[in-house]
Design a protein that fits this description.
Helix content: 25-40%
Radius of gyration: 25 Å
Strand order of the largest sheet: 12-15-14-13-16-17
Number of domains: 3
CATH architecture of the largest domain: 3-Layer(bba) Sandwich
CATH topology of the largest domain: FAD/NAD(P)-binding domain
Largest sheet: 6 strands, antiparallel, barrel
CATH superfamily of the largest domain: FAD/NAD(P)-binding domain
Mean pLDDT: 95
Number of helices: 12
Distance between the termini: 22 Å
Low-confidence stretches: none
CATH class of the largest domain: Alpha Beta
Strand content: 15-25%
Shape: elongated
Length: 400
């Protein structure tokens, strides 16, 4: 949609083929339906937030950065607001307003739109695009074809890997894919009883079987019936390599990251002294959210009926160590149905980073998530979509 809006209507006739019954279906669920369309961060920060092939994005991001995106939408009449972490949303908190703006602009540009039209094949002769064939066998001739099909995540929105198939059929390399920005499956004996519990300001570390640290971050975590989610978990799935076997890893929670062991032990001494005549199970309420109390008492190995004044120094030290390191066995990534984006895609080494044109097929362009480029949450992935769309639109319009 953005590409169709930005192509110079005086220099090209544009046909937009959409397999869904409406345009921008995936936009409706971005930012939990609120439409996190970009981030106010500067280009350097955005590049640092891209987990895969950030250098490929250098030219297109500088050509159409987040400030340009915001200015463009505001010129279309969309009122914006900025929230924590530089996240940009429509003031209305309705993602459909983004789609409405682009739809109106497409109409102004006299872009022809065919809904419920899935492309079956991209046609090439002598290394150059000649047309596209729809599922009903109809052929639309063209000089350029821009593939903006997304990845595989949220297949109900139409992202079913079509772009990868088109690329592979035309001899382009497609890297291995996996779900990214996705929850993790984990030990259900710990996670299921805590489903719905959100923990803030905690440190998360992920280690392998040799206790080698693979990931560490600080932030918010959410327990689910099957495992773990929340910003810090999604970041882990983005930052770790696509071939990571999460089922062989262990996640460590530091529930009191602001305190070192000595400070935490001092805190426990005070707690146990103030609750000296209470049973251990009834003395930890100020340390954890309510639903975590039984779990921490159980994991501690301390008799829950033991009075606090009878807890030994060794038991107290072990409890402090547990609070700083709750271990949860991971079982694997969530599915594509749960993933915000797909990691992997069309190999960027075969795409011109300035124009998004294939280096192998003249007139064939790839933009957005279909490329092997992915980023953290916070509006960065949509910024990738806008920037690559702008680069392709400029090239198709014959602009230098």
């Amino acid at each position: 949609m953005m590409c169709g809006c930005l192509i110079d209507a005086h220099k090209a006739d544009v046909l937009l083929l959409e397999k869904n019954e409406k345009l921008g279906k995936k936009l409706f669920i971005t930012g939990k339906g609120r439409g996190n369309l970009t981030n106010t961060a500067d280009v350097r920060t955005i590049l640092d937030s891209i987990s895969t092939n950030s250098r490929f994005m250098y030219s297109s991001l500088y050509g159409f950065d987040s400030a340009a995106v915001m200015a463009y939408f505001e010129a279309l009449g969309l009122r914006l607001k900025t929230e924590r972490g530089g996240r940009v949303f429509p003031q209305s908190d309705h993602a459909y307003e983004i789609t409405d703006c682009l739809s109106r602009r497409l109409k102004q540009n006299k872009v022809k739109i065919l809904l419920n039209t899935a492309v079956k094949k991209i046609l090439v002769r002598d290394g150059r695009i000649t047309g596209v064939m729809s599922g009903d066998g109809k052929i639309d001739e063209c000089d350029c074809a821009i593939v903006a099909t997304g990845g595989i995540s949220y297949p109900s929105t139409g992202s079913t890997g079509d772009g990868y198939r088109f690329a592979a059929e035309l001899g382009l390399k497609v890297t291995d894919t996996c779900p990214s920005l996705v929850p993790l499956n984990a030990d259900r004996s710990i996670c299921t009883p805590l489903a719905g519990v959100s923990l803030k300001n905690i440190r998360v570390t992920i280690t392998d079987r040799n206790n080698r640290k693979l990931f560490e971050d600080f932030g918010e975590l959410l327990f689910t019936h099957n495992g773990l989610s929340g910003p810090v978990i999604l970041t882990a799935t983005s930052r770790l390599p696509r071939n990571t076997d999460f089922s062989a890893l262990t996640l460590h929670l530091d529930l009191k990251s602001a305190l070192d062991l000595k400070q935490l032990d001092d805190r426990l001494i005070r707690e146990f002294k103030e609750n000296s005549n209470k049973q251990f199970k009834n003395s930890v309420g100020s340390l954890f959210v309510h639903k975590m109390e039984p779990l921490m008492v159980e994991l501690s190995g301390i008799d829950p009926h033991k009075f606090c004044n009878a807890i030994s120094r060794e038991e107290r030290h072990a409890f402090a160590a547990l609070i700083k390191n709750v271990e949860i066995a991971l079982k694997g990534r969530g599915s594509y149905d749960e993933a915000v984006i797909t990691k992997g895609g069309v190999d960027v080494r075969e795409v011109d980073p300035k124009t998004m044109e294939s280096k192998k097929v003249k007139g064939l362009y790839f933009i957005g998530e279909v490329l092997d480029v992915d980023a953290l949450t916070g509006g960065f992935n949509l910024q990738i979509a806008w920037s690559t769309a702008a680069a392709a639109a400029k090239a198709v319009s014959g602009e230098k």
